[in-house]
Specification:
Layout: E1 14-21, H1 24-32, H2 34-37, E2 53-58, E3 81-91, E4 95-100, E5 107-116, E6 119-127, H3 132-153, H4 161-176
Antiparallel strand pairs: 1-6, 2-3, 3-4, 4-5, 5-6
Helix pairs in contact: 3-4
Length: 177
């Protein structure tokens, strides 16, 4: 059984793998369709072509039934937060990559999907993370968001977003050191 925790394949990246219910086209739609993506990550339009724009509008407080408030250092990401990026790779339904932010040196995220029978192996790799704190926050964030996605795909209620994130942030803080 694979470790639920992500790995750090390089000094500036985080990688998380999950086996999720398929088929692959269903999982792909949860990456690119704003309405489906809003149920586990963020809504907003995505132009599915290299160079196309990505606008992710996060509503982390609304993702789950959660009475735990966001940690103070993440309060800005609790109600509504918007991230802009550009698609860097798009090969439906197997590969999607885009920049995470639109500053001078944004990080980037890649989703790789591989069918495995009735399931799909999803690999999320987030690269060009500038600091240890960025790696901890990104690892906890993807881990939490992917937990919500898994629950939604399996038609069950996900754990509370902020309580799970807070636990995972501490876990990744200890793991990343």
């Amino acid at each position: 059984m694979m470790d639920d925790y992500g790995s750090m394949p390089s000094r500036d990246s985080v990688r998380i793998e999950r086996d999720l219910p398929g088929p692959i086209e269903r999982l792909w739609s949860h990456l690119v369709d704003p309405d489906k993506r809003a149920r586990w990550l963020a809504d907003g339009p995505m132009d599915q072509r290299v160079g196309g724009s990505v606008d992710l509008v996060f509503h982390n407080n609304a993702l789950t039934d959660d009475d735990t408030p966001a940690p103070a250092h993440h309060a800005a990401h609790a109600e509504e937060a918007t991230l802009h990026g550009r698609v860097t790779a798009c090969d439906p339904p197997r590969l999607l990559a885009f920049t995470w932010g639109d500053g001078a040196e944004p990080s980037d995220v890649t989703f790789e999907l591989t069918p495995r029978g009735e399931r799909v192996h999803l690999v999320v790799t987030h690269r060009r993370l500038a600091s240890r704190d960025d790696k901890v926050s990104v690892a906890a964030g993807w881990h939490t968001h992917l937990g919500v996605l898994a629950a939604r795909l399996e038609a069950r209620e996900p754990e509370g977003f902020w309580s799970r994130f807070t636990q995972l942030e501490a876990d990744y803080g200890a793991r990343i050191g």
